[in-house]
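G., before I forget:
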Amino acid sequence: VTGMSGAAATLDGEAPEHSPPCSPSYDVTGKNKVVTVDGVRVKLQIWDTAGQERFRSVTHAYYRDAQALLLLYDITNKSSFDNIRAWLTEIHEYAQRDVVIMLLGNKADVSSERVIRSEDGETLAREYGVPFMETSAKTGMNVELAFLAIAKELKYRALWQPDGPSFQIRDFVESQKKRPSCCSVL
Ligand SMILES: Nc1nc2c(ncn2[C@@H]2O[C@H](COP(=O)(O)OP(=O)(O)OP(=O)(O)O)[C@@H](O)[C@H]2O)c(=O)[nH]1
């Protein structure tokens, strides 16, 4: 739930016949996830720091080469939110300069135990210029969207052309994200 997950992407060319262009499809096999965006298969290799956050030298090795990083906190746990600033400082120092970062406030389904307001996540994300949304691994809320947004951004960068269409990951996330129901807002 908390900590950091990273992703590196490879573009595999055309989508298979069965996945319609413009409609994302997913194939999760172990820690690889294939997201088809606009007819291009983006293979994400995903890893998770899995409780090793205390061993900083280990986590540096994980994220040094990542193309994207998902920073997760738990909306029911203040210290997980407070840790995010430390992560962002570390990333600034050790990660790739142009790494795609996304801030996620997880456990949005347990509104009764919420201690971090959505606005607090939004404010932090704005300060660092990163996209933000709340997620629930339990209900699936915004989970696929997080991977889709990253896949779109990495595909956009890989296939960028001066006269091609532009893509803004923050605008995309803002337009697509679901918000938890009204009653979960503090
Ligand atoms: N209600 C709810 N529970 C969740 C959600 N996501 C994870 N959990 C639960 O939270 C607990 C901790 O999840 P983990 O994924 O192990 O958390 P973690 O912080 O990554 O832990 P480490 O892998 O040890 O770093 C588990 O019992 C999960 O089932 C969620 O979105 N909603």
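The two ends are 21 Å apart (CA to CA). The CA atoms of residues 10 and 156 lie 12 Å apart.

More on Monday.
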